């Protein structure tokens, strides 16, 4: 069960409107690696955790925080859209390149659909969807998803920082940078705890005789040029075994021949003799 | 530029048809973490790499290998669909529960749309899409995406292994398990090389004064109950600093008040005095 | 900013596992009118409200409640998936129709992808997306969206109630039925307050001379048969004007003729003389 | 069965080309609340209506009208795209801000993909999809969906009206405004007829003992601050009962504990003692 | 402008309910190549046609017919869903395999969401979307899209015919088979008329010196094995020139080297000397 | 199994950066008819081919070539994005219309998400998805899909050619034009071989008595105006039979009446007497 205070976790007030920046900030709200993704990813992982309460708590701690981040960014976007030039008389782009750029560049849905509000979409208007997230039931796998999400997220925030010189926007982005630093570090720490117990390969409990073991430490050189050789040659993998490099990968199996489909499928008539 | 041999990288031949297993295997072909995702993710990352040829080569090596994995699984699915019971006379589910289960459970598109062939979709029929992958231009971020993808992928393969006792299917899954082991290890190794040079937090080159530094090492306890405290208390983060824990997070900013939209947006009339 | 208690708003405990019901409950979690939709719809509407704090507060009250409903349903689904028959030896559907029905009918991603957890998807596995919701900046329009959402939602819950006889599942559904009753009533009340002030047609402030007034009270009979006539004939509309009925709608405008595209588009050569 | 006359229901001829307005008009053609949505929503509702022929007729009347609205808007868009500046020599944006704004702002697919024609997509290019509509089998629920759709639709048309001063475009928008007025009024009238018979809460026929009755008239204050209290305090709901307000919502259920998954799922090892 | 008669173009009445067949028929209603696709494809092509009125008329003739086909299939689906076993007491799948198969196999949304009605989705529940269709402004290109659509459509109908022995369903499918025959033939005829005038390659008016002419008649053997050689060797293409076959394709261009991104993108540090 | 050489099949080097052209080129990479579509379409068709090895080989030959085309276009896009103006100081659009146009017009994800790299999306940012392709198991149907795809593809490339005067970009587009010429010709040739054997209508093996034969050669005049009559009148169809034209199509079936749904669906109460 959740409760809400209307106070924001951090300041989200621009010094002036900027509809183009509003459009770009949608990426970290409703994009593949925006706050909606981390919020839902952590909450679903938390709700689905079985028998590991301290991990569950940490996931729910940070998932709950992320709802507040969505709130901050949505609030920022709404204010960046103030005074967006949507009237026809402002269509005077023939003489004013500044207005022209905004007319051409702002997201038309911010005015037509959302009345100067944010939406759960990315910077090109593609709606957020549930296949952006993963909750697998395996904590190490999921913590790796989280480390990745926070790395992509902080990278995007750092790029957005360059795209504005508004001190209010930068202040909020600076807060997000800091929280993404912490979130990277905490998921790395949590993952390490599991790796120390279960080893580096996910999932750790696959019976050894299931794997085709002779190929589980080879880097195959499928792209001509052996620049990648130095990445593994003479090195030990994180599980302690030596890597191998195969310059000319060989196919294990013959060309497959499929038998014709039955007539009720109305596939093409097979012309080959079989 | 690519070339193809019709030989398969590994055996992909079931001992008998099984349309339900065909449906399930679609997950590791065209699902969020299926082979289409890793293939496209590694190739796009490789093509977009700038100034790091040995990483580029490794990404293209493995991305190219993954095209061959799609081929193996597609071939397996086509053969598992042999003799699927699609005719009306086989609709005799009133008396034969085995046929009934297959009739109800197989993916109808495998017959109606694909004529007993595989499709670029997941196990519930949702088509693969380009937002499953990431190619960010930052190698460490992307290698973390890759470590995650191979962890989720190997986890799914291990679960599918339990769902069949067909030795042919299991043999192919055993090969994929082994390759996913290697792929996890190689991306971990590659990530470590960058971490050793650039540090643990992505991206490493954000100016220190951009971050709101006082919050970049705190775990906020937004979910009541302090089980998560032990995850960080007294521990050093991977970047060497100490973690902090804040039991009762405090909001930095006041409740935001948005000013009314201009009349041309036809938003609701504001009733509050401002 | 949000906080979380791990206590659930209401009980969410089935008396026994049921993977088929788990699949069906996904509809009210991540479907078009599931809890993810109402949660996001109310929160975005609340964050985007300008100058109407009591409406904003009500939207955020109920939007926050809905996060807790997602939590309840996700928790229920996780427990309904306990003991799902995913192993090959349980594939013995040839002799046991009960297991057969579950094998064929359960959502394979619940096992393969989510490890017996819920996901932000609907009952056929289509992921939730941001275009399910609306936040328009016009409160009356949005309250009507909310009335609709709660009507569809309560309808779906009532149908699901028939599909189970598990007292635990029914208890939770009974709670959702009650909350959806209240939510319908509260949005109806809130809409009435605005209608009383601004009138029935959204938006109320369109200049009268913009409309082609002669057609704004006619029901056109475009489908042969005049059964619909009695719906409007002799009745006054909610805005006080009389409805009209036009049995044989007439076109206002001539057939349009488009001029050929310029050659640089490589459209078809126009063959008509113009 | 349908027939078509090439005459348009109303005039759809701009006085001059305007590729930016063409892009924006896509919203009311193929957006979430565009004409494709109302057309499909009303037709599917009509086709699925069981035992209420006058409602069915009205739905099919208006659904059929909406196909003609798609036609009008598509025709308008095609003409607004005349003379779109797509050639390289027109790329002279370095000196002409008017052309620059169009080059940057027009939808590139209007030229590359559609050869100056309309497409079933919204103003940012996201394709229309079948999950924008609802046909539930419950007329009151669906009429509420229709009231909402026409409210959102008329709101969007009124916003677009401000974005152009082309008299031809405004004339067509004025016609759509008028029809949306009528459509709002007719669905409100139809809904009232059902509400008068079945009551205000959908669906009306849920057995009273299914609901957890003690919570079906409470507004829970989940968002700190009691501005929303006045929305319900001392008021009667539309079903005649009094509303209640709960300042501090209490959780009914304890924190849930999920039991560990079986080993064949390869979830994380549970570390908690249970 | 369109008008509607409630009479169906052809009979659409099953002799008995069959919820599994209802699910499968969704494929030809709202699937990639269902009636919604051909309806929208032909109507948009017709509306966008410039200067070729007889083609435009033909497209609108058949596009309008297809709306009636959607209506027939939707009506059929609604009746196949009569008496679907949705109540819990019908969940008695432990003893009745027939009900078990239907419970497991029917589309749950047909009951939960649509109240026994059809929806604009395919046989696995994926919603129809606007990117299934093409309207390019080039008639020959689009007629080829139409020939393809009718070929896939008729193929799917013929497969569905095998999946039922209900004479009513088969009667309707037999009508659709016949219409798809005609539609294939009419688009082939129309395409031939344009090919006779403009030649076989689309678009016909690309200046000859734009093409890299030395490669426009070669089949490259990128997949090892020369079985494809006989497809072209010694044959003349439809444009009169001879085909060529190249057994060992050679790359024209060197390995590309991308220059590093500027620091403001926070890409990886380039380690290669350039 | 596939192998890769880093050499490009053809040159892909622009003479100068152009972020707007980068955005537009995404259409032929990840759009509905971009290279990702033809690559996947041909490979899946090849892998699913049963008993026709020379067709299978040809599909795999060209499918493999198309991976190399994706590589060329991705490489071109990465270089067109060099020096994209993403920094705030470059936001000087108030005075420089050239920069303004680029700021407004470039795809923001190219900077924020991809760090100046290509992505599997189209020119408006919609991700590629698996429902763009078809692999039906019927070769003639699929070859028609391929003829269409190459026609749409070459049309789009020819339009893009006009949008740039960069000789490097034009050189690559000229190569693609040539290859699309060949691919159109080769699929036409392959389709003819099957048509010669199986006839023109797909699928050829539907029993004659399944079709409602009296309607399989009629063009119905559903759109008022008989311009289309000359398309068929007095002409023989490709299968040798005469076309017919019906000026006033007549409905075969009466208006359908659906029986009410059972109470457990909570549909509207039927008000009609039945």
- The CATH topology name of the largest domain in chain A reads Ferritin
* SS elements, strand count of chain A: 3
Question: Low-confidence stretches of chain A at least 5 residues in length (pLDDT < 50)?
Answer: none
CATH hierarchy, class of the largest domain in chain A: Mainly Alpha
Rg of chain A: 26 Å
Overall tally of structural domains of chain A: 2
CATH architecture verdict of the largest domain in chain A: Up-down Bundle
The residue fraction in helices of chain A comes out at 40-55%
Q: List the chains of the largest interface with their residue counts.
A: A-B, 118 and 118 residues
What global shape of chain A is seen?
extended
State mean pLDDT of chain A (0 to 100 scale): 94
Distance between the termini of chain A: 64 Å
Q: Strand share of the residues of chain A?
A: under 5%
Order of helices and strands of chain A: EHHHHHHHEHE
Main β-sheet, spatial strand arrangement of chain A: 2-3
Secondary-structure-derived class of chain A: mainly alpha
- Spell out the CATH superfamily of the largest domain in chain A: Ferritin, core subunit, four-helix bundle
Binding site for Ca(2+) (chains A, B, C, D, E, F): 57, 61, 221, 223, 225
Keywords (chains A, B, C, D, E, F): Calcium, Manganese, Metal-binding
Cofactor (chains A, B, C, D, E, F): Mn(2+); Ca(2+)
Binding site for Mn(2+) 1 (chains A, B, C, D, E, F): 35, 69, 150, 183
Detail the topology: elements first, then pairings.
The structure is a homohexamer of 274-residue chains.
Chain A: E1 2-4, H1 19-30, H2 35-48, H3 53-80, H4 97-105, H5 108-112, H6 139-162, H7 167-198, E2 218-220, H8 229-232, E3 244-246
Parallel strand pairs in A: 2-3
Helix pairs in contact in A: 1-3, 1-6, 2-3, 2-6, 3-7, 6-7
Binding site for Ca(2+) (chains A, B, C, D, E, F): 57, 61, 221, 223, 225
Family (chains A, B, C, D, E, F): Belongs to the manganese catalase family.
Binding site for Mn(2+) 2 (chains A, B, C, D, E, F): 66
């Amino acid at each position: 069960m959740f409760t809400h205070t209307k106070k924001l976790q951090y300041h989200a007030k621009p010094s002036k409107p900027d509809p183009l920046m509003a459009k770009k900030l949608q990426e970290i709200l409703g994009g593949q690696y925006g706050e909606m993704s981390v919020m839902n990813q952590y909450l679903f992982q938390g709700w689905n955790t079985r028998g590991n309460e301290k991990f569950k708590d940490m996931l729910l701690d940070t998932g709950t925080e992320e709802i507040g981040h969505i709130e901050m960014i949505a609030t920022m976007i709404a204010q960046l859209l103030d005074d967006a030039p949507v009237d026809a008389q402002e269509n005077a782009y023939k003489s004013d390149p500044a207005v022209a750029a905004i007319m051409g560049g702002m997201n038309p849905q911010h005015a037509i659909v959302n009345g100067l509000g944010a939406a759960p979409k990315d910077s090109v208007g593609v709606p957020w969807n549930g296949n952006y997230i993963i909750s697998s039931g395996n904590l190490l796998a999921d913590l790796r998803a989280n480390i990745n999400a926070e790395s992509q997220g902080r990278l995007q925030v750092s790029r957005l920082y360059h795209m504005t010189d508004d001190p209010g926007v930068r202040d909020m982005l600076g807060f997000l940078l800091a929280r993404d630093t912490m979130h990277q570090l905490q998921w790395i720490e949590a993952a390490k705890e599991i790796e120390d117990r279960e080893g580096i390969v996910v999932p750790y409990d696959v019976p050894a005789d299931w794997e085709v073991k002779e190929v589980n430490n080879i880097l195959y050189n499928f792209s001509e040029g052996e620049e990648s050789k130095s990445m593994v040659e003479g090195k030990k993998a994180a599980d302690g075994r030596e890597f191998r490099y195969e310059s000319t990968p060989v196919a294990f199996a013959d060309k497959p021949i499929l038998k014709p489909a039955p007539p009720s499928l109305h596939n093409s008539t097979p012309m080959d003799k079989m």
